[in-house]
Design a protein that fits this description.
Blueprint: E1 2-5, E2 11-16, E3 20-26, E4 33-40, H1 49-58, E5 63-68, H2 78-94, E6 98-102, H3 106-116, H4 125-142, E7 145-149
Parallel strand pairs: 2-5, 5-6
Antiparallel strand pairs: 1-7, 2-3, 3-4, 6-7
């Protein structure tokens, strides 16, 4: 990984889950984050990297922020190791900067936001995952420098 000035432009965020992958996209100035849907995952199947690459292209992303699901102490988990591999593969396939960012509590923040607005999360799991990706992207946009993946699995 390298650290340095984070390029400006439209960024896509990925909230990696076992059943769904939430997506968010920023505006072209990299200022405002919005939900961009979710990708359903099939249990036991390979990670949908090709679909993530397609979404990156269709959303005209200039960089990717991928949530890193660490444990309560901030250590890697089997899922975070999978995320690291996927992030490296996305960096390789897209030639875009890919940043990994601690995603602990993003889903909790998204759930609380829906409830605070008086909404229900029942039957809206994909919406919550996309909102969690939005929270992740907003967090990333507030940072000056993001830890970028080099495209080589570590």
């Amino acid at each position: 990984m390298t650290d340095g000035p984070t390029p400006r432009g439209r960024w896509m965020a990925i909230d990696w889950g076992e059943r769904r992958i939430g997506l968010a996209i920023s505006d072209p100035t990299g200022t405002i984050a919005s939900p961009a849907g979710a990708i359903e995952r099939r249990i036991g199947k390979r990670a949908p990297i090709a679909e993530l690459v397609r979404r990156t292209v269709s959303l005209e992303a200039r960089g990717i922020v991928m949530g890193l699901p660490l444990d309560g102490e901030g250590d890697d988990t089997p899922r975070s190791l999978e995320c690291r591999r996927v992030a490296a593969e996305l960096a390789h396939r897209t030639s875009l900067p890919v940043a990994l960012l601690d995603e602990r509590f993003t889903t909790a923040v998204a759930l609380r936001a829906v409830r605070d607005m008086g909404g229900s999360t029942r039957g809206r799991k994909a919406d919550v995952d996309a909102l969690a990706a939005t929270v992740l992207l907003q967090q990333a946009m507030r940072m000056q420098d993001l830890p970028l993946v080099t495209g080589i699995a570590e």
